[in-house]
């Protein structure tokens, strides 16, 4: 049922967190600090063990996922040692985090569909335990209800797929693939299962880090591990839902006034990109993205207090007023060209890139958009040749490193992934369409003539992002 990365090592990675959970449940109230540090040390030791198994692992995908699982768990639990110090529910968090870590290990390393489903359901149950950390709060109970409902639908679909697959794999293949797609969309908070994720923000910040950096990636993990069961219909559903969720999450992220709320919709948008890559069969891109997003989003949630202070400084260092349209056009062109040139240099300096495929092209486009947005913000504050030179000095080494890492990870994962059947032409067509939509939204945002439409879009986005407690009268 489980992948033999090295049987003793894998059993240790599964059992050690369970021992911590048992200790937290029995001794947690009497020694909460000791239990919290034990959980952190166990997760950190698991991370070191996962790193040690990388070269000899027979399943490279499982080995890579274990790095994410134990890395995020160690970071979140280490943060919680001080964050929940003196909190009566500290041991509850340690117990839930340990259960989640063990269940995620089972899911990541499963080699059968039944084993994958067992780990999948266990992850959902452990998350609901964590979301109930402050169950006395109405908002926390509402978050648990919404999450449990979405997960029940997704888990029911997955277990139905398990049963049908074992009845007649060939005749029922389209139905099985659609059921798997439903399960993946529900776990990754994609439309139409998107309402549960922003309802979970009443949970303590370390729980949010585990959720947004780990659990929501489960949809992508499921699709990658069951890629051989995909069908065109299921892929179409995933592409449509992922694209819609990416746009929806990005718009609401821009209008949410609170840091954690904005991060929640950012996660939804990022998961939309991951679903899009899965629907296109770009399995390496999906795995690299979910691992990178996991560590990045954990850091963002745990440093949300710092982000508030940075946001205040952002207003104090507002861009200079009165930039002419021609100056803004030059800044926009420079912001687009600098990261493009840096990435081109990275490709030229990475010999293994010639072995690349469509998945790497998707990640290259993603990096370019991200770099262009960051450069645009920097140049609006430093609209000088010195500012452009400083941006280039940062972008070039970052791009070279990014390209080298993407290429190396893609080659490492290749033996464990289904071959991509998507042609580069299809990838570029999707990228072009996405960039056209982003360009249209940017033009709408910047156009003085579209104030009425901007206000209407803002109002509708704020309304869409407002959650009413389940069962409450509007």
UniProtKB/TrEMBL annotation:
Subcellular location: Endomembrane system; Membrane
Membrane-spanning intervals of the chain: 6-27, 34-55, 61-85, 92-110, 116-134, 146-165, 201-227, 233-255, 262-284, 329-349, 361-379, 391-413, 425-444
Record InterPro entries: ND/Mrp_TM, NU5C-like
Pfam families reported for this sequence: Proton_antipo_M
Primary residence: membrane
Domain NADH:quinone oxidoreductase/Mrp antiporter transmembrane: 174-371
This protein's UniProt keywords: Membrane, Transmembrane, Transmembrane helix
Lipid bilayer topology: Multi-pass membrane protein
Designated name of the protein: NADH:quinone oxidoreductase/Mrp antiporter transmembrane domain-containing protein
Species name: Mycolicibacterium rufum
